[in-house]
Queue: 2 jobs
Job 1
Amino acid sequence: MKNKTKTYALLALVLGIWGIIGYRIVSTINPSAPDVVQQVFEVSFNPKTNTKVDTFSIQVVNRDPFLGTLLVKKKPNKTVKRPTQPKVVWLPVLYHGSISKQNTKAKVFIVSINGQQNLMKIGQTINDVKLIKGNNNSITVTYKRARKTIQKT
């Protein structure tokens, strides 16, 4: 009987320990909701005005902080604006062809200026139209400092 008493006592102790462990597991899985008390606060927002003004100044750095060399400013290129020449209204100039002697290289060009046909040599000026150069296909003339190439018609 002595062994049965110990067995029953140990059985009761084991069941008690397992009961406590089971109770803790069940209580953590299904916890009871705590009571929540809401408190009402009256809050008014009064921002502080910042009377102190933060001042700073930017200064030119003359030295490269990484290389330690002095910085050299590039001078801007000065561009000279030339006055634009007014647009020149050209006289009607047409190039008809050239005439030359067989034994010489000098050519005479047939040019119509303002509807009037003229025979011109290189360097000759008629009605402020100067013949600069020419070949069988085109001539180059200037009129009031404006240059123009005219093709043969």
Job 2
Amino acid sequence: MTTVSSDLYSSLGLTAATNTSTASSSALSQADFLKLMTEQLQHQDPLKPMDNSQMVSQMAQLSTVQGIGELNSTVTSLSDSLGADQILRASALVGHSVLVPSATVPLAAEGGASGVVAAPGAGVVNFTISDANGNVVKQITTNAGEAGQVAFNWDGTDQGGSRLAAGRYGITASITGVNGTSTALSTYVQAPVESATVGSDGIYLDLTGLGTASLVNVLRVI
């Protein structure tokens, strides 16, 4: 923002303000700038009129002030539009299921649970499910023919085939490659979207059995 020197105030017979308690009192608005320019023209010496270069410079400054104001209005309007778009995107996800990174898997009173891992290559993928005390209750093994996503499905039973209680269970995965080397894998768990919230930093989803997850962490919408 352009400031006005004390020389300009003196030439107009005015006294420069000394109160700087707030930012707004020391900043010129577009109307203030235009008023000062008008006063300067009215009080200039007829025998020594303002230099053309000074006039052009001050007009350019006024144009800059106006342009900044219009830019602020445009940015505000764009921000409002993006906020409305986020709300629409969030509401469209309710009722769908998503895959999100999670080290726990929810088990309902009925049905099972599922998810995926990303295998780096061919090998045997091992899934280990444990209870709240860390005890292993189920192990699932599947083959990965090549690099890519490998799905797992758990029917909610333990290793002996008995139905387990509803709740959250821990899950880990690893792959044993053709060379015999075992590598830990990140697990992505599927969960239904109950609701969505638009926060200051993006969209957050409330997932059944998993809690809250950011939309940026969603691997897939189902």
